């Protein structure tokens, strides 16, 4: 029995069937991974925008190992190694006032919903069609996709969904009891959907006029993914709260919420056993150190993808790339994998690429060639 079959057999016998999967990834380095059969792939999924510094970056590995030799966990009952340093760094990066850590993006959103409610005294939220904010009870309530939300209702958080990019609909939806408006500066799970010019600025205006908080969900778009630390930094808009996760620690589970001055949890209002632990904070600091060095080159790499895939009208912002393919997207994904390139299909038949930020020009050109060939075979 080969290794992949062993993985599959154990999974089918003992693991709840929540995921669809066929491949076992067992090793990674930089922008490449290897499956259980030893086959090499250029990874343009990157754990869904998680492995920002590539797989097993030496600086991140060293930071985790060094910290593991000293202290793995100590609880937030005490001052945690690296936690204050990381909070300071993220405050500097985001322009916010203070940070709170979590174990995931969904937890960061949950914390944000609590913070918005307790500080504004309001209860309702507004979010956008095709937006994705997580699968916990709280974050699912502000996630639009009916197929994953409706089976679990009622969810305890009242949310109105407005068409992404529709400022008039937004203005009608926000009222005096709206605690916050959640928006992805670029919708990732929807297929890399970039908002119309001026839309984020209009959200800021509506929030200012109503007293609602503007919440930028940068879980997928943050940490250099778009060529700036935050996708919203491509505008002049400053939100009230920012959520981060995915690429924040190169694959070590972690999230964060950051808020402007005047918005913070008071003692006893929020907590977490594991959040902001020594290993996670060490991994995140090392990740930031790597991204600082490569950040100036990310937009150029995105333009290389854009030029190579120009005939397919890709949506590109840094190293977030989306291509509308339609119902044949899964077939294109399969063809790419057969040629040694991993991509995935987001919503509505959109091919999505979110490769490690360290991907090389040579690897980009290889990916472009494979995608071009797959689209030519399947779609054109």
Summary keywords:
Aspartate Aminotransferase, domain 2, seven-stranded mixed β-sheet, single chain, 380 residues, 12 helices
Percentage of residues in helical conformation = 25-40%
Order of helices and strands: HEEEHHHEHEHHEHEHEEEHEEHEEEH
Q: How many H/I helical runs?
A: 12
State Rg. 21 Å
* Major sheet: arrangement of strands: 4-10-9-8-7-5-6
Strand element count: 15
Kindly name the structural category: alpha/beta
What can be said about the biggest beta sheet?
Answer: 7 strands, mixed
Name the beta content range: 15-25%
Task: Please tell me the CATH architecture of the domain at 59-288 by its name.
Answer: 3-Layer(aba) Sandwich
């Amino acid at each position: 029995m080969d290794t992949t079959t062993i993985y599959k057999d154990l999974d089918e016998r003992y693991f709840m069937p929540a995921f669809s999967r066929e491949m076992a990834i067992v090793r990674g380095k930089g922008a490449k991974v290897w499956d259980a059969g030893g086959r090499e792939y250029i990874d343009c999924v990157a754990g869904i925008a998680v492995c920002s510094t590539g797989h097993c970056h030496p600086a991140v590995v060293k930071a985790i190992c060094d910290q593991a030799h000293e202290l793995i966990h100590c609880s937030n009952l005490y001052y945690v190694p690296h936690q204050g340093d990381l909070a300071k760094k993220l405050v500097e990066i985001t322009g916010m006032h203070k940070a709170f850590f979590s174990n995931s993006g969904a937890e960061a959103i949950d914390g944000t919903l609590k913070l918005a409610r307790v500080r504004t005294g309001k209860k309702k939220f507004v979010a956008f069609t095709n937006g994705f904010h997580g699968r916990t009870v709280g974050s699912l309530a502000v996630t639009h996709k009916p197929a994953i939300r409706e089976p679990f209702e009622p969810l305890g958080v009242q949310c109105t969904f407005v068409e992404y990019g529709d400022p008039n609909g937004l203005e009608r939806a926000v009222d005096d009891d709206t605690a916050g408006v959640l928006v992805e500066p670029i919708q990732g799970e929807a297929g890399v959907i970039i908002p119309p010019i001026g839309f984020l600025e209009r959200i800021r205006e509506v929030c200012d006029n109503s007293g609602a908080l503007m919440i930028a969900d940068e879980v997928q778009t943050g940490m250099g993914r778009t060529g700036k630390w935050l996708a919203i930094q491509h505008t002049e808009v400053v939100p009230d709260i920012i959520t981060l996760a995915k690429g924040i620690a190169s694959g070590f589970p972690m999230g964060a919420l950051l808020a402007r001055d005047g918005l913070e949890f008071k003692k006893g209002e929020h907590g977490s056993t594991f959040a902001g632990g020594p290993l996670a904070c060490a991994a995140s600091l090392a990740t930031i150190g790597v991204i600082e060095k490569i950040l100036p080159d990310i937009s150029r790499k995105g333009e290389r993808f854009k030029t190579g895939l120009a005939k397919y009208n890709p949506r590109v912002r840094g190293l977030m790339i989306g291509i509308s393919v339609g119902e044949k997207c899964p077939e294109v994904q399969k063809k790419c994998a057969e040629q040694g390139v991993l991509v995935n299909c987001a919503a509505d038949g959109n091919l999505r690429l979110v490769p490690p930020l360290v991907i090389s020009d040579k690897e980009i050109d290889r990916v472009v060639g494979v995608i071009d060939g797959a689209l030519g075979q399947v779609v054109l």
